[in-house]
Amino acid sequence: MIRFECNEKPVDASAFPAHTTLLEWLRLTGQVGTKEGCAEGDCGACTVLLTEAGGRTRAVNSCLVLLPQIHGRAVVTVEGLAEGTTLHPAQEAMVACLGSQCGYCTPGFVCAIAEACHRTDLDADWKLEDQIAGNLCRCTGYRPIRDALVRVAGTAPDDAVGRASRAAPPTEAPVVHQEFSAPLTLPEAWEAVEAGARVVAGSTDVGLEVTQRHRRFARVLDVGRIEALQGIVAIPGGWSLGAAVPLSDVEAWSEREVPVLHRMLRYFGARQIKHRATLGGNLCTASPIGDLAPVLLALDAVLVVAGRAGERRVPVSAWFTAYRQTAMADGELLVRAEIPDPGAARLGAYKVSRRRELDISAVSAAFRLVEDRGVVVLARLAFGGVAATPIRLPAVEDQLVGSPWTEDAAEQAATAVGGLLRPLDDHRASAAYRTLVAANLVRGFYRETADLAFRPLPPRHSGTVIP
Ligand SMILES: Cc1cc2nc3c(=O)[nH]c(=O)nc-3n(C[C@H](O)[C@H](O)[C@H](O)COP(=O)(O)OP(=O)(O)OC[C@H]3O[C@@H](n4cnc5c(N)ncnc54)[C@H](O)[C@@H]3O)c2cc1C
Ligand code: FES
Ligand code: FES
Predict the structure, then answer these.
(1) Would you say residue 455 lies in a domain?
(2) How many CA atoms lie within 13 A of 164 on its CB side?
(3) Is 269 close to ligand 1, i.e. is its CB under 6 Å away?
């Protein structure tokens, strides 16, 4: 069964196949204000507003959302924003700022801006840019669209989004629809996991298999509603992050608590992607260019997997076993990641891609140095995009231990990194370029951290919980 609200009207979409995307459903049912550009999360033309149980509304790419994933939730599309003949403030602002020419991108921008109307945390330029970085416009140019965004961000109008948020049920409902199921607890998941169901969380990777490769899975298990995979909580010595927490929540939380993780997330996908993508999905898809792996490797995170027999802890350094393979066994799910508080350390995270926003890394890296009385006692150098899996370089880490963090030490480490790596040539970057960039990131890390005052960070275990 698939029931939800669309533009404040109840809908029963149970007649549609489980692999239908929300965008396909909208357009098949005549709601063609929402556009299809790429069908792979890159253009934002399909952006709609999705309100979850609990009332949180997110701008998402409807091309990547499977229809059963919105059971019990509320969708507002561009058709639902105006009140009769009165335009929504986001639409009015686009008109006033001359933000639309051919108009193909406009519904997506309007929905992204409508989300911004309800945000209270748009307190920096980069956050404004990030709000619309997932939307492409081929003809107007971004200045007028950004002006429209600035005009209405944070104004909290009384609109369909606010009403959907207030009317949202407090808790999620389970979903069973044809070959698709989304249980609320782990015990209810094991039968599908053991039967080899295709696991899906945010569907930003799996969704591409459906829309681009036209794959249809015999069974699909959505882990996005399982209670044990939710929330960010303080634990002794660090934090536990649920595998199904959307990355936009991890980003907001980490800005204060783990800035090095926040720095990587700033350049991860775009807001619509981060609203759906999860930490678990990023680690389980095990891409050699997955951006979170280097940060978690540098922080010595521990991943907790579970199966019917119970939980097992895997250091992230043992997680990636071969190209796109992990230490997770058949019948297991990733439940959470435990991240130790890095405390007083020199930290850096870097993503090198052809453009800054919404691009895939050629090389990524994260570094951590812990010192005692001016001498490095622990070093972590982690890279993505330079091998079949995300990697650390223990030989270079050992070389750094026992010496002060000086320009000479950094130069020797950079030379060693360049000598050790044998990356692949591909359409994104040549092996020579990747090797040089990886070595230069170590040099850049030195420049960034050389003069860093070595201050212990204040305790931060304040019991932060994102429900
Ligand atoms: C436009 C676009 C931009 C992107 N930008 C970036 C980027 O900048 N950096 C980057 O690293 N990635 C990027 N990605 C890739 C993707 O968004 C991430 O890998 C994301 O974290 C995947 O999370 P998800 O929840 O959507 O995964 P899903 O697509 O739901 O699942 C991915 C894989 O993980 C498995 N899985 C998911 N959760 C679990 C679990 N709890 N236990 C066991 N298996 C599980 C699934 O079976 C599947 O194999 C981008 C993707 C798109 C479409
Ligand atoms: S159609 Fe391009 S992001 Fe969905
Ligand atoms: S107005 Fe034409 S693509 Fe943006």
Answers:
(1) no
(2) 28
(3) yes
